[in-house]
Amino acid sequence: MSHFTGASRISNRNRRVLSPNILAFRSIGRFLTMTALLLTGSPVEAQDGIGAGMGFDVEYVSPQRFRDPGDKTRAWFPVKYVCGETQPGERLVQATYATVINVLNLSKFRIRIGWWFSPAPGAGIPGAQALIDGHGSLYMDCPFIIRNLRIFGVEVGSFTEGFIAIEDLNDAATERTPTRVAAVYSSLHKQVHNLPDLLPRQTERSYCRLDAEGRLIVTIRNQGEADAPASTTRIALAGGEAFDRSTPALAVGAEANLEPVPIPRSEGTLVFTITADAMGVIREMNEPNNTAIGTCLIIL
Questions:
Q1: What are phi and psi of 150, to 5 degrees?
Q2: Burial of 291 (0-12, 13-18, 19+ CB in 10 A)
Q3: What pLDDT, in 10s, does the model give residues 84-123?
Q4: Degrees to nearest 5, angle at CA 288 with 279 and 203
Q5: CB 113 within 8 Å of CB 76
């Protein structure tokens, strides 16, 4: 598919690839306005203890000089993208994330760029090429990224992340490239209040607190805004057993030392994972902080 506007022209390496929307330089200001409406114009349902949290960041991507053997040195702009909604327990805080990548031509002459998709995980996918008229720009947003990933058979769930590597295809030396790239990131998440918040407390370095018999002592704290009922904490030893420990009800600010956990009596580094409310029965202010990874250096 080819798409033309007064600012730019798309030339696809693969005709199935969908082209991004091409706008003049004023598109940057228009996008910022649209993003502000996205963050503030979509009302969050009024629920007890829940409020809206918003994030907004702009990153200017520096060109990276790179050359494959036998090829020409080019300026590359590796840009991170995050798109969609994360779920409790995932690596990023639960929220709805969006990315818009703007590519600007500083020159009064037309330039050419190309790009590759690098989903995480997955192999690189060739994208397309675009001509950008003098002082023009183009943008790539999450719908564009997701559509192209699906065209190439990438399974995209409720959340996807990866890189787009943008290549300057002009004849200018890499240090004089007229191409500039900026990425705009926004997030909309819920900030929950008036609930408990259980987490492992680091009473010793790397959570390695041992009793006189060499057993592991785990401490669970409620740093939330409401009392926490009784729950279960799981301590999983890397490559070994997992132990469940009863955790008593905890008032706001209270903590408890759990029944000691036996650990192997062999020299080396022991890695373990502590998960408060391992059964997930308590609704909390912050679910991801329930888990902590600790280490103990065992010397006999």
A1: -70, -35
A2: middle
A3: 888 766 778 778 899 999 999 999 999 999 999 999 877 8
A4: 90
A5: no
